[in-house]
Amino acid sequence: MMNEFILLRHRQIPDLDQLEVYRQHGGFEAFQNAVTAMNPNDVTQEVKASGLRGRGGAGFPTGLKWTFIDNENWPHYVVANADESEPGTFKDREIMEGNPFQFLEGVALTAYAIQATEAYIYLRGEFWQIAASLDQQIEELEAAGLLGEKIFDTDFSLRIFTHLGAGAYLCGEETALLESMEGKLGQPRLRPPFPPSYGLYGKPTVVNNVETLTNVPYIITRGADWYTSIGTEKSTGPKIFSLSGRVNKPGNYELPLGTTFRELIFEHGGGIPDGREIKAIMAAGASSSLIIANEEALDTPMDYESVPNVGADLGSASVIVIDDTVSIDWVLYKTLHFFSHESCGKCTPCREGIYWMRHIIDRIHQDEASWSDVELLNEVAYQIKGKCLCALGEFAIEAVTSGIERFESDFRAKAAEISSEG
Amino acid sequence: MIAEKYAAEIEIILAKYPPDQKRSAVMALLYLAQRDGGYVTKGDMVEISEILGITPTEVASIVGFYTLYHDQPEGVIRIQVCNDLPCALRGADEFLEKLCENLGIQVGETTPDGLVTIEAVMCLAACDKAPMFQVQSADGLSYYEDQTVSSALEVVETLRKQDAS
Ligand SMILES: Cc1cc2nc3c(=O)[nH]c(=O)nc-3n(C[C@H](O)[C@H](O)[C@H](O)COP(=O)(O)O)c2cc1C
Ligand code: SF4
Ligand code: FES
Questions:
Q1: What is the ipTM, given to two decimal places?
Q2: A182, A264, A303, A404: which could form a disulfide with A257 (CB 3.0–4.6 Å)?
């Protein structure tokens, strides 16, 4: 068990959202040290050596991404992804509300590493109060000489701006986010090229999640060796697990990567209410496949390499707990309504496929379908697979295909009810 | 005319982006117009298109794409209950149903006095504090978390009174 918070430090240090307090606890020393005593490339190399992987869902190695920045094309941009819209995810919000300066210091260090003089924070529209606080905190940093022109009397200048989205889950996808920032519809771009070569305004851009960036100051202060001592060999560092659903104590838990589902759900989360049994787990919000919550699954370490052993991905580590009072067809009903609301309609398999899946699940949910409808649902899902422009289409079928395969009896029961009535 | 009324704010917004990328300011300018009038009018869209050097149709397509912009006047107070999967696992559907029952309307409807609209929305990043809702009104958005039907009804009453005064 970790006894010191690295990300959710505001839980241990009161008023950490005050710049003075943050600086009393070592705040902006990493940034000062980097800008005055380190090459930008040294910062990138340290982050690379730390093994830090993106916390926004894809788990891509952060330092490696920074090395892809095209140094033939300028200016460079950093964009912090604060869109946080995956159902079951509420960690970036807590970081920005409780420990905003560590996040901002992470943005600043990243900008120094890739020599960006402008950084943007893209927040979901509902976070407008957080954006207003960040604006004020950025002003304080400028007044303190920690942002702005010629920081610490060096040649490095940096400004940070907030940008509010307006209610579209898809804008969390990094290229849709960049389109949205450019004042266009928030629809994904064809990739490649990837943002480090063609990003905001066509310029080399690093897009990182809020939690990812909040790790960076510690990596620079304490070093990659220290960081790799937390977590597992391939999944280093701490992670915030957003725990929701049928647990006694839902909330954010900062734990080392590699902590088991059992420890999170039963020790920290206080187990399942009303003495019920755990039935299924979604590890990456609504975009997850459904894990059968048997003993093997519960003992699985939550890290990037182990979760695939139980047929799922860690993603953003938004752990949704489902107990035995819930029928899995209802879970699919919920996730498909979400994805049909959020599909942008740019490509046919996603647009049409999700539309049909939603209609079929509505019928199943309203007890109007038979087993052949369940089979049809499964078929439509497989037809979408691998044919979409962005990952949203793939996310939408995760729960469907895994749910029908792994919880077939729930669907059989539903179909049997109908045939016995009919 | 938002251009005159909010000249200083518009300048601050435009300064965030490179001079040749003014279009990036469209979202912020739409928020400004919506804050002013409760919803975005055709006139606002024309004005914003002129400020940014794009067409009114382009501005209108942005308004249509994002759920937080409105181009019609609606219930003054929009109660948006999250009933997405994680919240629903903690009773959000029952909460929504009872709340509607108490107000005598269905999801998506507005109370006869035209003041309160109830909507169901997707995850608001507050899943551990369900049942929860956000209120969208002329004052912007605010979250109400760990709610019960009676606490929610109190919120509605308070907002109604505020609106009447
Ligand atoms: C449909 C969709 C939604 C996404 N939503 C988010 C989000 O809300 N926040 C986020 O950080 N990443 C989100 N991502 C992942 C981003 O595309 C991108 O991988 C991430 O911002 C990179 O940062 P990281 O490497 O630090 O994780 C989403 C991806 C997809 C396909
Ligand atoms: S996969 Fe879906 S969300 Fe993604 S671009 Fe295609 S239609 Fe839009
Ligand atoms: S599911 Fe309701 S806030 Fe996340």
A1: 0.95
A2: A303
